[in-house]
Amino acid sequence: MDLDVFVTAHRAEWERLDHLLRRGRRLSGAEADELVALYQRTATHLSLIQSSAPDPMLTTRLTQLVARARATVTGARRATWRDAARFLTAGFPAAVYRSRRWWIPTALLSVLLAAVIGWWIGAHPEVQSAIAAPDELRRMTRPGGEYETYYSSHPAASFAAQVWTNNAQAAAMCLVLGAFLCLPVIWILFVNVLNLGVGIGLMSSAGRLDTFLGLVLPHGLLELTAVFVAAGTGLRLGWTLIDPGPYSRRTAMAQQGRAALGMAVGLALVLFVSGLIEGFVTPSGLPTWARIAIGIAAELIFLAYVYILGGRAARAGENGDVEAADRSAELPIAA
Q: Does this model's pTM top 0.85?
């Protein structure tokens, strides 16, 4: 190909495309159609030059011109309030609803394991002595001891912020580390269950299990549910790596990974609410029944949110992934 002849033949088209791009949004319908046609032709010209007569300066010029044209033609989609509303009313609850077959068994097994650990510690004094010295155990479990003062040892606002940060990090780790064949998620979940079981065992051995539950249940119902959802989703992500189903492993992991990242944001909001309850309600002077009632109400509201809004969105095809226009194209799947 004679490069000089080629440039002479098409220079006017490139200059016209550059002129239209400089005008930005001030284009008529006919000019917009012309811009698209020139963009397609210029992209073809660039391909021909690269394959037949590569010239560094001309290639750079046309590459920049094609990139500008592509950005103008395709546009850059910006997040809007509509996206946030869709996420909160459909995407997030639908993702939680769809993963219920993972997080509900996770929750049931975790609670059962915590109860077994608590019974084992409470029924065996030798296990308690292995945890801490008798004097230290008394300081922890006595009225006004460390288990009770833990929730009022710091100003409510800073304590709520600290709790939210720690729990959000744990949930995010469950979601992200699920890709490593589920093992890190199981360990994080076990540590949380072990801590709960130790508290149940030590306080029950001191005859103060009712006090312990009165302190844990107001915030713990919603907090543990969020952790179980994160753990179940992380396990699901890890299992997708093992069994991607009808999709390719890359496509399946991309879909589940995007949904998991979205759930990290949603669960951070849920844990923010539980953090507020733990910071302001748990250490408050309200009667125990009132504090527990607030925790139960928060839990029921979240479950209704998941099963009503999430179930409706899931049946409509929502899966918590980003919109189709924001996803890369996928190969068709054989039935």
A: no
